């Protein structure tokens, strides 16, 4: 798989996180894809569990920005910024995510590296 | 394990890559630690194989700089710059590495995300 195709899949994922529904984001994953966010937590598997994870974003204004990406084989590691504006609080964090992809550039696994101390909260 | 301890272990590793011998770098790893650089290549296991990997750095002027780090549980993902000056060529690359650590902050696994296209070569 090419670096360009994997980079494109990451860009589409970040666009879905910023502008899509939970269904749109889950559709970036393979049907039995896994999500571990943050690393060390119990992984979620499959579209229903993944959709549930992102459902909290509904109604929030969101913004994402890709800061750096490195592709190796069928995997990518990327540093990005995500800002989530809820009614009374705004969250900002710049995780480093690691993803693997299938032949159709669907996410087969996602692992998000960040600690609670990396999260900035503004009212 | 604390974020500070893991960050300290990454800083010591990057210092060893810049200023240490292959033995110094291998000593940052647990005895049965693994190294996969780049991701997708056959992993090396244990101090002898790891020392051999870094032996090519002997005699090269090296510089490393930590650009970003995120810690989660006993793992870290970090973006860094490494410049290696050989007699007739200089290599520069900014990989994203993922490491896991044991209780003594020794590296139990290292996976380096980068592609050949990320490497800059100057004569």
From TrEMBL, chains A, B:
Signal peptide: none annotated. Gene3D superfamilies: 3.10.450.50. SUPFAM superfamilies: NTF2-like. Pfam families: SnoaL_2. GO terms for molecular function: steroid Delta-isomerase activity. Residues 10-109 form the SnoaL-like domain. Its EC number is 5.3.3.1. Keywords: Isomerase. InterPro entries: NTF2-like_dom_sf (IPR032710), SnoaL-like (IPR037401). The keyword Isomerase applies. The keyword Isomerase applies. This is Steroid delta-isomerase. The lineage of its organism: Bacteria, Bacillati, Actinomycetota, Actinomycetes, Streptosporangiales.
